[in-house]
Structures are given as C-alpha cells and as structure tokens.
Design goal:
There is one protein chain. This protein is mainly α and 182 residues long. Helix content is 73%, strand content 0%. It is built from nine helices and no strands. α1 packs across α2 and α4 packs parallel to α8. The longest helix is centred in the C-terminal third of the chain and has 25 residues.
C-alpha cells in the first residue's frame, strides 16, 4: 500500500494503516537515529514520540511533502532537541556497519572487497565537514532523494546536490591519491 493511501487511512482513524506505517518506517528510522549519534533509548523514544504525535494529531495533520520526509525530519528534530543543537554529531560506529549483511550470494573475496571499500569510503566521508557528511550519508546509506533531504534539513535541493557533488568529488580524489601511492 502506498504511503498516501496509508496516510489517508491513518487520518480516518485506521489503526491497521497506522501499524503498517510504523512497521514500514521503524527499521529505517532506527538506523537513522543511530547515524545521528543517538543512543538506543533516546532514538526509540524519538521514534515513539513522532508516531504518537502522528496518531494524536492525525485529524489535523498536514504533510506537505511525503510521509517519509515528514517522519525523518521529525525524528531528526527530536534527536537534535534531545542532544542540543550545538552538539557535534557522531557517525555510525564502524562495528555497527560491519554487522550489516552485505549479501549472502557473494563470494567471500567479493564480500571482503566490498567491506574494505565501504570502510575506505566511510573514512573519506568522516573527513568531510559535518553538514556534507550528514547529507552524503542520508543519500548514500538511507537512499533519500535530494528533495527529501532538503525538506528534512530545511535547505534547498541545490544545496543538497552541491554537498553530494563535493563529497563524491572529494572521495574520488582521495581514492585516486591512494591508488597513486600504491
């Protein structure tokens, strides 16, 4: 069922539609709060608060973009509120990234190559400025579109495109430099 249909059913008070929406976005949002550096308790509280608000305010809820952008933005705002806006964000711990399954159908050498490449890209991304790092990770790890990221961060889509372009360019240059040293 599409998000628009789910949202209209939620607005009509359909609990099954609400549960479907929650189950659809909970794993993505759980990964997202970890990426933002929130602990498990704060992250789960943020997600619970967002969905509780969504349910309580369903009759007057106005989603101007997509429900995906809405819940990502709401969780980000809750996490920032909990942590304080000036706190430096932490990126996803490396040990968490290594726990993610890459694929069961790959050969071990391909799995190792992909894991090493992912670690190397993560290291390059860690060298980016905070805003660029956040935008690149939202695009790369969370597969969010430029418009969605812009709506979540309250910036223009062109700014998002610029940050992603700069991040890719930076990673490409670092990779070339690394290859030339070997």
């Amino acid at each position: 069922m599409e998000d628009i249909e789910l949202l209209s059913k939620v607005k009509a008070g359909d609990r099954d539609a609400f549960n479907s929406l929650f189950l659809k976005y909970y794993p993505l949002l759980a990964d997202f709060y970890r990426f933002l550096g929130a602990g498990t308790d704060d992250g789960e509280d943020a997600i619970a608060d967002v969905f509780l608000d969504l349910w309580l305010k369903r009759d007057r809820l106005q989603v101007h973009t997509s429900i995906k952008s809405y819940v990502y933005g709401a969780v980000k705002n809750r996490i920032y509120t909990l942590n304080g806006k000036n706190q430096k964000m932490q990126v996803l711990p490396e040990e968490y990234a290594s726990e993610q399954p890459i694929s069961n159908q790959l050969h071990p050498d391909e799995i190792l190559f992909r894991k090493e490449r992912r670690v190397m890209i993560q290291r390059f991304v860690d060298e980016l400025p905070e805003q660029g790092k956040l935008i690149f990770m939202m695009h790369w790890q969370h597969q969010l579109e430029h418009q969605e990221i812009a709506e979540i961060l309250n910036i223009s889509p062109n700014t998002v495109k610029t940050h992603i372009y700069r991040a890719i360019n930076y990673c490409r240059k670092r990779l070339l430099l690394l290859n030339n040293q070997q």
